[in-house]
Design a protein that fits this description.
single chain, 334 residues, alpha/beta, Rossmann fold, Hect, E3 ligase catalytic domain fold, eight-stranded mixed β-sheet, two-stranded antiparallel ribbon, 9 helices, 40% helix
């Protein structure tokens, strides 16, 4: 009997990685002890690393969630080979290691059954492809799916509590450092942030002009050059007023990975006063100025942030910004 085994861990902690290696060793010994022949195929899929093809019959997804199939490349490769009937049996430790989403899980079982491939769930000692076990497998998969939803809710609650203490998921924005997993103001960068808001609001510079000045004097957080989109993005972030915004997107279905954008009025806003760099009056004035310049752009069809002098002159009658116009002059044209 040609067989393979599927292993999965959802985190990449040392403890879980040890578990992964233990699973692999267990199945290699199982094949040998029962006289099974390991099919000469396998794959190790590690999160953020290149795939590693093997010939030991072990397919493993390391650091990958079991709620959706799209990231489980080792699992998908195994099913692709199963369709070609390159082995007879798949071993997996438990239903939860196999799938936590009933639609995907039962769909794959139906395919395996049509191809004549067995799926042995070890802790239950059953063939999940046997029609007599379909109801039991379906019920257990449903339980695993609901457990995933419950965990997702707990994670969201934890993220909100984290934000209240000055925590922000992702890289620290310019103007801040991360200390003991929480944001703190970086004094030198904070002065640059204040200068940017002053350039835009009081000196009437555009995003491009500010980006050029900063690129010549101050590197970005990642040590690169500044872009106008980067400057604009910073000008609209409430973090600089000490407010951490979270909950902008949410999982529509944790088991499929579908997300939806949350309306702004439903975002979670947490005030952390010690993170304030820009006062509310300045921040709000900048938002109004951004909107004014955007309206001018719509009215004229011309950008108002192209040069160092952009936005300095406005019409006293309608408020529209004066723009630079380049005239083409050739022989005979005056």
């Amino acid at each position: 009997m040609k067989c393979v085994a599927y292993c999965r861990v959802s985190t990449d902690t040392d403890e879980q990685l040890n578990s992964m290696e233990n699973q692999r060793e267990y199945y290699l010994k199982l094949f040998q002890s029962k006289g099974h022949v390991a099919a000469p195929y396998g794959m190790l899929n590690r999160k953020g690393k290149p795939h590693e093809l093997r010939e030991d019959g072990i397919f493993a997804d390391e650091g990958i969630s079991g709620t959706k199939l799209k990231n489980r490349d080792a699992f998908l490769y195994m099913i692709e080979l199963a369709e070609k009937q390159l082995f007879d049996t798949i071993f997996v430790k438990s239903i939860s290691r196999y799938s936590r989403y009933i639609v995907d899980g039962m769909g794959v079982l139906k395919k395996l059954r049509s191809w004549g491939v067995r799926l042995i769930i070890e802790d239950l000692n059953i063939d999940a492809c046997d029609p007599n076990n379909e109801m039991m497998v379906s019920m257990l998969m449903t339980v695993g799916q609901e457990e995933s939803r419950a965990k997702s809710g707990a994670v969201k609650f934890g993220l909100k509590s984290y934000a209240k203490r000055g925590g922000l998921i992702g890289n620290a924005p310019f103007g801040y450092d991360r200390r003991d997993k929480f944001l703190v103001v970086n004094p030198e960068e904070a002065e640059v942030v204040k200068m940017m808001f002053d350039y835009y609001l009081n000196q009437r510079m555009g995003f491009n002009a500010i980006a050029r000045i900063l690129s010549a004097t101050v590197p970005t957080k990642q040590g690169g050059v500044w872009r106008d989109t980067t400057v604009r993005g910073m000008m609209t972030r409430k973090i600089y007023t000490g407010i951490i915004e979270s909950g902008k997107v949410t999982s529509f279905d944790v088991n499929t990975g579908q997300i939806e954008h949350v309306p702004e009025e439903q975002w979670s806003l947490v005030n952390v006063p010690e993170l304030r760099i820009i006062d509310d009056e300045t921040f709000n004035a900048v938002q109004r100025e951004i909107e004014r310049r955007a309206n001018n752009y719509k009215a004229t069809g011309h950008k108002v942030t192209q040069t160092l002098l952009s936005g300095l002159l406005t019409c006293g009658h309608c408020g529209t910004s004066y723009i630079r116009k380049v005239r083409s002059r050739g022989i005979g044209h005056y």
